Amino acid sequence: MSSNKINVAVRVRPFNKREIELGTGCIVQMQNNQTILLPPPPIEKDRLLRGVKSIVA
Questions:
Q1: CA angle 43-12-40, nearest 5°?
Q2: What GO MF annotations does this protein's record show (predicted)?
């Protein structure tokens, strides 16, 4: 049986001024050596109508 390991690096940059003004929240948390990804908050209906888009890579 193979004992392959996968290492993943997560880098979170500080929020820029626009993101702070929008009240953006961080969905990445660290606990010891574990990375926890939280589900993003639901998008408000008025933001959808303005055409604000999010790209997740």
A1: 20
A2: ATP binding; microtubule binding; microtubule motor activity
CA dist., res. 15 & res. 25, Å (int): 9
Of the candidates 25, 50, 51, the one whose C-alpha atom is nearest the C-alpha of residue 39 is: 25
* Strand extents, DSSP E, the chain: 28-31, 34-37
pLDDT of residue 57: 66
pLDDT in tens, 11-32: 899 999 999 998 888 999 988 8
Helices (H), the chain: 17-21, 45-49
Q: What is the pTM of this model?
A: 0.51
